[in-house]
Design brief:
about 120 residues
């Protein structure tokens, strides 16, 4: 699958599309983004029907569950691969250097990774 964007030789193509929570100097509101090439797509702005699942960045999407995850991934892929969407989507692409990438999601708990009595004993030795 190819994109209408010039992203040849990028590790962030349509096959990857990693999610991020980001903000910009113009708008400090945390938003859900998807990296494509050297750009970040503002998902809620580009796909208005998905905006409710993108509130607060990645937290909103994670809370929505697997069906919505698949729906968002399919819509983002469509928007970035269909040449007919370019004019609609291009205004919602932000150069990576103009973004402030935030902690991807809210950490709600702490895990110390002590898996067993033996693990704890070995760490203490």
């Amino acid at each position: 699958m190819t994109s209408w964007l010039d992203i040849n030789n990028s590790q962030f193509g349509l096959e990857a599309l990693p999610y991020a929570t980001f903000r910009t100097s113009a708008d400090s509101t945390p938003r859900l983004g998807v990296r494509i090439g050297d750009l970040v797509l503002d998902v809620a702005a580009a796909a208005e029907g998905l905006a409710g699942h993108c509130e607060g960045g990645l937290d909103g999407l994670l809370a929505s569950g697997p069906e919505v995850w698949a729906q968002v991934r399919a819509e983002v892929t469509r928007l970035l691969s269909d040449p007919a969407c370019e004019a609609e989507v291009r205004p919602h692409l932000v150069p990576i250097e103009d973004t402030d990438l935030m902690l991807p999601f809210t950490v709600a708990d702490y895990v110390d990774f002590y898996a067993s009595e033996h693990h704890a004993s070995n760490v203490g030795k």
